[in-house]
Amino acid sequence: MYGEIQVDKVSKAFGGVQALSEVSLTLRPGAVHGLVGANGAGKSTLIRVLAGAVLPDSGQILIDGKAVEIGSPTAASNLRLAFIHQEMSLIPGWDVLRNMALGIKPHTHAGIIDWRPLRARAQAVAERVGMQFSLTTLVDDLTTADQWLVMIGRALMGESRMIAMDEPTASLSAQEAGKLHAIIRSLTDDGEAVVFVSHRLDEVAGLCDDVTVFRDGKTVESAVGRKLSKPELVRAIVGGEVETVGRSESAAVVGEAVLAVESVSDRKKLRDVSLEVRAGEVVGLGGLVGAGRTELARIIYGAEKLTSGRVLYQGKPVRFAEPADAVAKGIGLVPEERRAQGIFLEESIAFNINIATISELRARWLPWLKMRKGRERAQAAADLVTVKAPNVGVKAGKLSGGNQQKVALARWMVDRPQLLILDEPSRGVDVGARAEIHRLVRQFAAEGSAVLAISSDNEELEVLCDRVVVMAEGRVAGELQGQEITQARILELSFNRESEGE
Amino acid sequence: MPAQTNNALKISLTVVSKYGTLIAMAAMIALFWALSPRHSFLSMTNVLAVVNQSAMTAIIASALTLVLVVGEFDLSVGYHASLAGVLCTGMIVRSGFPIPVAIAAMLAIGAVIGLVNGLLVTKAKVNAVVATLGVGTMLVGLTYGYTQGSPITSVPAEFKQITLGRTLGVQNPIWIMLIVLALLWVLLNRTALGQRIQAVGANQEAARLAGVRVDRTKNIAFGIAGCGAALAGLMLASFLGSGTQSAADGYLMDSFAAVFLGSATLRDGSFHIVGTLVGVLIVNIGFNGLSLLGTPVFWQYIFKGGILVLAVALSSIARQAAKEV
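ok -> structure tokens follow
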């Protein structure tokens, strides 16, 4: 039987953000330890510290009472710590056995892998976790729940004393999740320590022996060998002292519905989503990461196919084949992943701003573009959003995150779309730029456009929006208006699940 | 290290990464000038000859540049040029079409073949290397089927005159090359389509979300590469005075070499028209100079492959180093 794993006053800062501050907790063998908290509260950072992916700034990890250095993933695996990360890391096209054997150093004869011991080991693991399928099944043919079993199986292939699972049940049905819980219980019965990250609070309340609640990088509540009820958890996650920031009241007269989403579902995440955005208002889309908000935005924008339900734009049903069709109709999107999807890092600010409306720069008689007009137009848009750069010829990649985000926004200031969709408009942006972006968005709405703003930052939703629609697990969990929009209410709704009948 | 030397090192590395190929070209010119008998390397006749030799490769390579800028590949250009050569001479000699009609037909067919490449890549989602290699191989088949194994000869003098003639004392292919290069440069750098091509190449997903029609943009780039291949192919047939199967196959390697050499010129490893021209010229200057010096042919090929690998490697190493200083 293994001893305890202790996390002792671990701190970690990224840039100016304190992701973990003096976090201490104990992982007991034979117990399930739940980690809960809002997005960005520090759960994932802690797991990355344990996995050797991130080095703490201060504090230490003790295993069996001895301080250990986890400098790399290999070091973590040598210490018999296993991790199952949120994103599926199975290799498609490979069968179960090969996926499970990945990362295990096999016996070889003259370089040729001897599969017999691996197969025997995998068979034993398969029986332990109760796999109902053959080791030769391709992982592509398995259900999500069974794929999770394979991931757990992989973690168990080597000797392990602790398994950390980051949101294993996020994409499972209640029944599948129940099956997973039984397997987790059998692991702890064998003396394994299990770390269980989940946003499903009822599940945490039911399954976990110990619970640690994170808020803003700190542990705000911990219960060892004692169950916390769901209301207790919610209270701890949301916290008592929710600061109230002056909300900017809408100045514009709210007009006709610009966008109406009616019962939109997709095969993966969204279930029967309906919402409406009117001219002159900023509607927030709140919820946890993975609630389906980005997917919805992409469907509206034509970046993803609309398979079920209707999207009405200015009163007419639309079905955009590609984003260009949406742009032509006066819709703009500032995507979530700025560097990967929003900005051309190797191109100039002017290029980045002009590209969406490039055909307007065509000279009347000649087949080329009016380059000077393009520069002037880009400069005007950049000035409007206060991009800090000597001129618009500067490469976007050289700007700070906040300025890059302003460039992404400036692209849509040229033609002023009737509907602007913002996905995490101020993520990774400093405080000054953030306030600036909020001001611009408010002003944009005040001039009569409709804005749909996705944000996982509930303070941002509180400050920015006239109305907030909160999504949870692919559904609309509720809607808040005016004074109802508080961080606490948004968070509460974010954890709302339909199965609980709230 | 003191900041000043650091800075100086960074600047010199940047110079090497951006101007290395141009410096190498200048050095080669100086060397061949010094070594060639009676300094004949820089005689007007020889300079024009070198550029003339470069013309067809430059045309095919600059059209190919657009496909590479958009982030794709076209391995069919050489076989395509060969097909255009035999089809064009065949239409004129066998079927008696007027020369301008035959040329226009080649350009149109070229665009269609390019478009087929594009559609396979964008709509059928076939990897560009596979799609264009497959299409290219089919084009080889068409070429052999059309010629039945024997070259198409007795080409009319007017057709030969297109590339053998001179205007204002300069060989026609040089004029054609300059016009094509100017058109493609303007297209890529001064038109909405060109900006879209660059956007798709720089970041396809960002381009799509900014409202660029990615598939359409790629298809057009493939179409232009097809036109370029057809033009170079029919010019070669005119130059050789016959439509010969596989005559232009070698353009595939030559044009890729030029485009990649060009990517190491003036820019940070991105493809562009001026760079492609420099790439073509470097290879041909080397070939010409070495043969003036009486170097055996095998050396000329070793030079050609060597300078490509060396230039691209040096430029990329210098660029990395400049970043790290």
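Residues 3-35 of chain B form the longest helix (33 residues).
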